[in-house]
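Continuing the batch. This is chain 6 of the set; chains 1 through 5 are on the previous pages. Same settings as before, nothing changed between runs. Recording input and output for traceability.
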Amino acid sequence: MKQFINMRYPVALVKRIDDFKKKNDFTTRTQAIIYLIQFSLKRLEKSGVK
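Output for chain 6:
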């Protein structure tokens, strides 16, 4: 089962995501976004924020 989500991002954020994608050798913008979300969630878990 596939799930899709459409999200709109400000142009400045898209540029930063694209720079991050190129710097870290991700092939798609979606991969970079998912990585950043996972990284942030792990950081929140470690800090104990609910």
